[in-house]
Write a structure and sequence with these properties.
Helix content: 40-55%
Number of strands: 6
Structural class: alpha/beta
Largest sheet: 6 strands, mixed
Number of domains: 3
Radius of gyration: 30 Å
Number of helices: 22
Shape: elongated
Oligomer: single chain
Strand order of the largest sheet: 1-6-5-2-3-4
Order of helices and strands: HHHHHHHHEHEEEHEHHEHHHHHHHHHH
């Protein structure tokens, strides 16, 4: 609810009023620039959300709350928001009124009086002119166009295999995309009875700039090019692809804006149909499940791997769109940026003092593991809050309460030990020996903080132990205490 409802309201229009820190400075760990004070004030909204999610006390450290709630630090969230906005602007089609100002801001280096557009585009490390744009599609529902092909997507892999083996088309084309060692490539194979196969390969580039989806579309484009240049493809013709998303993108291109390669594929298919004229020509675009023993699929899979490793057909033999380097995919840039942001956050948390302490309990943090543990429907909200407070060590035990002069001593009220800490309460206090015996029986091993606070399976057993001790009956925890 916080991510889907509160955060968009807080960050509405941030690409205009917020000055992001350049990505190079952020990666190098330099001093933050931009709207630092604004970020600090707005971070309190995320802190309130993290407190509500975890049930921690208001004295809990913000970085610990973010790690337990699996929420990126707010300064990272707002920079990520601006990065996505910059990508959306860079991907605008050429007819958009902002397209020319974006190109102008990309080319120019303004030292003084930068506009919000200058500030926003500098978060991109990629030249905006090299980023793929969204194709502008128009569709008149009063005059529906007929598809130049038939789409067949069987319900299951088994039915896909049966349909592929029973296919009666004389000309069969199979396409595929592949990613190997961070490299992306695509291939297409045209099979004809009694003749050698025709092959096309295309190496897209690095995985940081292209996705498997781009490769699958490039494969479909080459498949249609093989059909277009095949003289005998005048009757039944089939294209088999093992990626449903690519097939649906081409299918939906008639009504919705989509990938520019999908638009080119549709245009080529219409050209082929028009060129065949009145001949009994029919093109079927069929989903053929991968790795199911379909000969054409297995063959093109090997060829796609060769393309990913660097093999490409001569440019004159490729479709016109693939004779030059493709525009960089915004989806690939988002994936790489998200991965870098999370890795940077995890490394920073692991090096911090609180992070090192928390990794002794759960070395996967920050992750969704703790939230999943306290989100168990069998776990009451009060118990979930207490477990969060035990994890942060900010819980109404005497060692904590004495810091704020709420009690006179740090001694344990159950056994009189010098300090009632989280470890003492969970593992050592003799006053709760009977309850701890039941806990040990439930988790089937000797309890320790890593097992109790870092393992999802121990959450219900820990809840029973907390309730059995009655330690917090007179001090019900709540946010804001």
């Amino acid at each position: 609810m916080y991510i889907g409802t509160a955060l968009p309201k807080v960050l509405y229009g941030a690409e205009v009023w917020y000055t992001p820190t350049p990505e190079k400075i952020r990666k190098a760990g330099g001093k933050l620039r931009g709207s630092v004070k604004v970020t600090a004030k707005l971070a309190s909204t995320q802190r309130a959300g993290a407190l509500a999610i975890t049930g921690g006390l208001r004295t809990s450290p913000t970085d610990t709350l973010d790690a337990l709630a699996n929420l990126l630090p707010f300064e990272t969230v707002i920079d990520k928001w601006c990065y996505r906005a910059a990508l959306r602007l860079a991907a605008l089609h050429d007819k958009h009124p902002l397209r020319k100002p974006i190109k102008r801001c990309t080319r120019s280096r303004v030292k003084k009086h930068r506009s919000p557009l200058h500030l926003l585009l500098r978060v991109l490390e990629t030249d905006a002119r090299h980023i793929g744009t969204k194709a502008l599609a128009t569709y008149n529902p009063a005059k529906p166009e007929r598809r130049p092909f038939e789409v067949r997507i069987p319900k299951s892999k088994e039915s896909s295999k049966r349909e592929a083996l029973a296919a009666s088309e004389e000309i069969q084309v199979f396409t595929d995309g592949s990613v190997i060692n961070g490299k992306v490539g695509a291939a297409a194979v045209l099979t004809r009875p009694g003749k050698n196969h025709r092959l096309l390969h295309y190496h897209l580039g690095n995985e940081s700039e292209y996705t498997i989806y781009d490769a699958e579309l490039a494969g479909l484009s080459m498949g249609l090019h093989l059909i277009k240049t095949e003289k005998k493809a005048c009757r039944g013709t089939m294209i088999g692809a093992d990626n449903q998303a690519a097939i649906k993108a081409v299918q939906n291109e008639l009504s919705t804006p989509s990938h520019y390669i999908a638009k080119d594929i549709l245009h080529t298919a219409q050209q082929i149909k028009k060129r065949r004229g009145n001949k009994p020509y029919m093109l079927t675009l069929r989903w053929t499940a991968g790795h199911e023993g379909i000969d054409g699929n297995e063959l093109v899979d090997e060829e796609a791997k060769k393309a990913a490793k660097g093999q490409s057909s001569p440019p004159p033999t490729l479709p016109r769109l693939l004779r030059q380097k493709l525009k960089i995919s915004t989806a690939a840039l988002k994936q790489v940026h998200n991965k870098e942001v999370k890795t940077r956050w995890k490394n920073k948390w692991a090096k911090s003092l609180r992070g090192k302490r928390d990794h002794q309990i759960d070395n996967s943090s920050p992750s969704a593991q703790f939230i999943e543990a306290i989100s168990n429907p069998k776990l009451p909200r009060q118990a979930a809050s207490l477990i969060s407070q035990l994890r942060t060590t900010h819980i109404p035990l005497n060692s904590y309460l004495h810091r704020f002069k709420r009690v006179d001593s740090t001694r344990c009220p159950a056994c009189g030990a010098m300090a009632e800490t989280v470890q003492h309460f969970l593992l050592y206090c003799p006053g709760y020996a009977h309850e701890r015996w039941a806990l040990e029986k439930a988790i089937k091993c000797k309890p320790n903080t890593k097992m109790l606070l870092g393992n999802q399976k121990s959450a219900l057993a820990l809840k029973n132990y907390i309730y059995a001790t009655h330690r917090f009956d007179n001090k019900p925890p709540s946010n804001g205490e």
